[in-house]
Amino acid sequence: MTIARQPYGKFRVTRFETQHNHEFVTPSTAHMLPSQKRLTFAQAVEADLAKSSGLDRIPKLGMGFDSEDHAYEFYNAYAGRVGFSVRKDYVNRSKIDGAVASRRFTCFREGFRQKDNRDLNVKRPRKETRIGCMAQLVISRQSDGKYRVTHFEEKHNHELVAACRVRTLRSQKRQATAQVEGNGVDGSTTQPKLVSGLLCNAVGDQDVHGYQPIDCNSKLPFRKMRDMKEGEAERLQQYFQSKQLKNPSFFYSMQLDADDQITNIFWADAKMLVDYNDFGDVVCFDTSYRLYKDCRPFVAFIGVNHHKQMMVFSAGFLYDETIDSYKWLFRTFIEAMSGKKPKTILTDQDAVIAEAIDSVLPEVHCRICVWHVYQRAVKQLNHMFVGSGSFINDLSSCFFEHEEDEPFINAWNNMLDAYGLWENEWLHQMFKEREQWATAYGRHIFCADIRNVQLCESFTASLRKYLKFDFEVISFFKHLGKILNDWHYKELEDNYDMSQRLPRVMGDVILLKHAREIYTPKIFELLQQEYETSLNILINQCTENGSMFEYKVSIYGQQQEYRVRFNSSEDIVACDCMKFEFMGVLCCHALKVLDFRNIKMLPSQYILKRWTRDARV
Fold first, then answer.
1. 131-154 burial by CB neighbour count: b if 16+ within 10 A, else e?
2. Which residue has the higher pLDDT, 95 or 122?
């Protein structure tokens, strides 16, 4: 389609070609096309939530309901899972008491639109939606007062609506609205309830249902460290309430200070909650806003999915950075995630944050994120970039390219020698604390290889402009939503590509053919690289003790050896390099031993679900 602007300012279509020289994608995958990204990620996840949380049953003859409304709600929930909208059709009422005797619920495409002579004068007639679909559910009142299914037609004569668009259907919109309006009425639901007022100034005003967005029970005993812009707290509450109205799964909480002023804010939308449930084993707590001046105190809980793509699990604003505020933040985070705790949390180098995590999450492994340390190094050593094009590369190499102790120390010392930095006190202190952040240490702790994703750089940089105090806070949320929306559709695109083709295998290798059907392409490529390296590995020595074997292996032409232990009774393999423990993919040394032992398929215990194609199943 070609358009051209006319002299009076409007654009008109000047050329339109309807013929394509290729097949169309199916309606169920059309939402994955790049130009369809106007759909918000919330719509897709809402459909997933509705699909997973609804009743699993299919209507059957004789099924009973207490009222016609219950029957409608059941059929509409079923329609939401299948992909159509429900229309309330005819109703027969008793001539004695006027109560409903029988009723029919139909697909919204039932029947045909009646012809109207006035349609001839309509320039833009409405699209025809009714095409004679016979799908329907009929209920009748029985002698016991219950309504039972007397007729059910399951088949439709049209394609059903894709899951991500179900919430746009009329009956599904009404259902969502009804859920919000009825939320918390009977006290049996744990869904968030809406805040009735803008501010919670009365500490004793507690929510009897256990969830209160304004957290009056965890007030700070002192005044907050930083002030919000005038009127911003009210705008934020109105924004959060509107988000919760659209989706009751939206979670937010606000902490007050001693003056009953909103101080700290936390939120997580439905998509974030789902993402954390699937990939929340490793969390990076990002406080990169500290690197910039005049920015709102934005913090985020970040992770990676099975394509090694970045995702945000939740976020917040902290206008007070004391230990009490951080404790509240981490407690609220776990509450929002239904009590599920991560295995590992990566943080900035901050004693207050470390103490708060140790207090709230003592069983969680806490590591300093190497990316945060690198960002601080860039700031501390910015004078070194002047006149030296190689320093940034050598600095980056020290932080990210050495997975073992000796090579890391050698690279560090070489950098200090080359640039005369032996007297730099900050680098000296960082080296003393290297076991807390350097990737050569703590390799027994699973980190999902987050160190290589460089999570925070582009994310924080893209938000920096909108975090400034002179920008309206709602503009920030719109921009953040756009970023997260783009990320979600990148995942959908990769999922679609993954479903259409398998990655190439370097040869006729059974193990690789098996692995490519299990792993996502990104993770499979990592494994294939390890396998390719294993072809050049030598087994130098083997010792045996019953079912236990110990191998010493090395890469051809290199002196460094690795110990690989193998238990033949259980097919358990473990390597000194701890690559599997650190990132969840077997190393080249372990793969060499498995091949030597004639094990041609990956043992199931070394396939982490979070890296597989079925990670979200």
1. eebebbbbbbbeeeebbbbeebee
2. 95
Query: What string of DSSP letters covers 129-187?
Result: --B----EEEEEE-TTS-EEEEEEE---SSPPPPGGGGGGSHHHHHHHHHHHHHTTSSS
Helix, strand or coil, per DSSP, at residue 228: coil
> Domain for residue 354, yes or no?
yes
What is the Cα–Cα distance from 34 to 254, expressed in whole angstroms? Answer: 36
| Pairwise CA distance, residues 86 & 511, whole Å | 49
Phi–psi pair at 564, nearest 5 degrees: -120, 120
Q: How far apart are CA 573 and CA 591, in angstroms?
A: 9
Residue 32, both tokens: 């994955």
Residue 444 in any domain: the answer is no
Q: Which of 487, 485, 479, 422 is nearest to 453 (CA)?
A: 487
Whether residues 467 and 590 fall in one domain: no
Question: What's the whole-model pTM score?
Answer: 0.66
- Rounded distance between C-alpha atoms, residue 309 and residue 615, angstroms: 13
Q: Would you tell me how many other CB atoms lie within 10 Å of the CB of residue 385?
A: 12
Confidence of residue 293 (pLDDT cuts 50, 70, 90): confident
Burial (Cβ within 10 Å: 0-12, 13-18, ≥19) of residue 325? buried
Residue type, 162: A
Comparing C-alpha atoms, which of 484, 609, 338, 474 is closest to residue 45?
484
Q: Please give the distance of CA 19 from its chain centroid, rounded to a whole number.
A: 38
CB atoms near residue 571 (< 10 Å): 15
Q: Are 350 and 474 found together in one domain?
A: yes
The DSSP element (H or E) to which 97 belongs, if any, is: none
User: What's the total number of domains in the chain?
Assistant: 5
Q: Which residue has the higher pLDDT, 611 or 469?
A: 611
**Same domain for 340 and 289:** yes
For residues 486 and 365, give the distance between their C-alpha atoms in angstroms, rounded to a whole number.
Answer: 31
